[in-house]
Amino acid sequence: MISRVTHQTVQKSTLANLQMNLDRMSRLQAQMSGGKVITRPSDDPGGTAAVLQLRSDKRAAEQHSRNIDNGLGWLGSIDSALTTSLASLRRARDLTVQGANGANSAQAREAIAIELEGIRDAMLSEANTTHLGRSVFAGTSDAGMAFTGPDGTPPYAWTGATSSSVERRITPDTTVRVDVDGAAAYGQGAESVFALIDSIVTGLRTGGDVAPLLNGLDDRMKAMLGELGSVGTRYGQLETAQQANQKTLMDLKSQISGIEDIDLAEVIVELQSQEVAYQAALGATARVLQPSLLDFLR
């Protein structure tokens, strides 16, 4: 049986096809203006889900990058402080050897004592080094400084939090310690390197034998060298993680771009094709549908 095709049927069908063509042109124009294939989730549900997961991974990688940068800052400050302290401690040892010479006059011993006090104060300042307002030798303590001064109660007390450490997460499964136990590096209280230098100063001023105190300086130097070696190892670990994290970020950006970014040349060609098809459809419609003024008024 032959279906009856009316003027109204042709009109509805033609207008529907023209609307579909306009809709495709609109989507292509939106893609060109935004530079994205996916302008709304319904454009590609599977691609949208993949992009959301990739963006979540990218945010995590960016946070790891910030953690690594922060950790490098902490360890860099510690490395500088320990290196400077070791240089000061070597100078203190040389002065102690010089002061142990019994041929020194009282004035010479006093001059050595004054220089040692300056070294003690400089080392104490290094031991209280901070990074972004946090003491790098006091763990999670918020005391503001890792060691009290010579007038503290008790003198040279370590104010850090016992059995605590500052860590930074650099991968989903890896954390790295970015601080150093100040008590392990400098000692604390009467056993600290600061108190040891005070004992040497007292011995020089009272005419005592300071040679036996050289062993204490050597022990503190070994402790600092051990902590410095640990810092170097962790710094290298962070640098390796930084390189790997940068590659991960680049890969994630590339994957996101591959899913949601448009192929500009392809979209331009397709849009031009749709425009040609639309103009042709308009021309054909004008020939098929030629309403009179009376039809328009109805």
Automatic annotation (TrEMBL):
Residue ranges of every copy of the Flagellin N-terminal domain listed in the record: 6-140
Record InterPro entries: Flagell_FlgL, Flagellin, Flagellin_C, Flagellin_N
Compartments reported by the entry: Bacterial flagellum
Keyword entries, A-Z: Bacterial flagellum, Cell projection, Cilium, Flagellum
GO cellular component: bacterial-type flagellum hook
Transmembrane parts of this sequence: none
SUPFAM superfamilies tied to this protein: Phase 1 flagellin
Recorded superkingdom: Bacteria
Pfam families in the record: Flagellin_C, Flagellin_N
Record domain Flagellin C-terminal: where: 216-297
GO molecular function: structural molecule activity
Alphabetical GO biological process terms: bacterial-type flagellum-dependent cell motility
Family: Belongs to the bacterial flagellin family.
Protein known as: Flagellar hook-associated protein 3
